[in-house]
Amino acid sequence: MTDSGWSQEEYCRYLNAERRAYAWTLSELGGFTADTARSAAVEQYPYLGAADPYRGLVFHHESWHWAMLRLHGDRYWEREPGLLHPPSAYEAAWEAGLAEDPATAILTA
What we know:
about 110 residues, mainly alpha
């Protein structure tokens, strides 16, 4: 484990999962093109080195929440209660990202 509490592999797997699910949400629910959604995901979830004290902080909320904020603004869950929880397709996208080679998280940084 690093000082931040994340092993390199664990951090990179989560980074891939969050990026994939964030991009899925922007493209499927926000109308973004796949390329634009992937670029936005890398921007939202930049790779941070093991020595960075904020490594992993972005994971304190799942990518669904960050994407909903981007698409619908603050307090989206009050205006649209159905958006509080992600659909199963989002969960599938997240799981697919978790299964990706962790080295790809660094390559797309």
